[in-house]
Amino acid sequence: MTSLIAVKKQTEVRAVQLCWADMDDVYGVLWEIINPYSLYKIGPEDVSDTCREHGPEYLALEVPTKDGVSVAVHGDYIIRTDEGDFSILHPKVFEKEYDIITELP
């Protein structure tokens, strides 16, 4: 095979940042995976990003991924693909890998 230079195909995803200010969006995007046991409060030492919100309590959410259940912490982005798969990205990784096309209503 010839050596190649390739560019990753673009995939459009729906994403939401886990923070208090975006809870309506979090519920709108992730409604089927949120239950009273999957969403809970954590302290400031465990957050990825405070989202300019002042604690003392922040959020954590258990998210089913292809590799099992993972925990998104306050400030993480939760990605939902068109196929219905979920993944979690730290804000710095999200900003590096994705360009925001539009904010959803």
Walk me through what this model shows:
The protein has 105 residues and is of the alpha+beta class. It contains two helices and six strands; from the N terminus they run βαβββββα. The strands form two sheets. A three-stranded antiparallel β-sheet has the order 1-5-6. A hairpin with a 2-residue loop joins strand 3 and strand 4 (68-73). The longest helix is centred in the N-terminal third of the chain and has 8 residues, at 23-30. The chain starts with 13 loop residues before the first strand and ends in an 8-residue tail after the last helix.
Mean pLDDT score, rounded? 89
Give the helix/strand class: alpha+beta
Oligomeric state: single chain
Query: What are the secondary-structure elements, in order, as H or E?
Result: EHEEEEEH
Number of separate strands: 6
Low-confidence residue ranges: none
Shape: globular
Kindly estimate the percentage of residues that lie in beta strands according to DSSP. 25-35%
The structural domain count equals 1
Can you lay out the helices and strands and say which pair or pack?
Elements lengths: L13 E4 L5 H8 L8 E4 L15 E8 L2 E6 L3 E4 L5 E4 L1 H7 L8
Antiparallel strand pairs: 1-5, 2-3, 3-4, 5-6
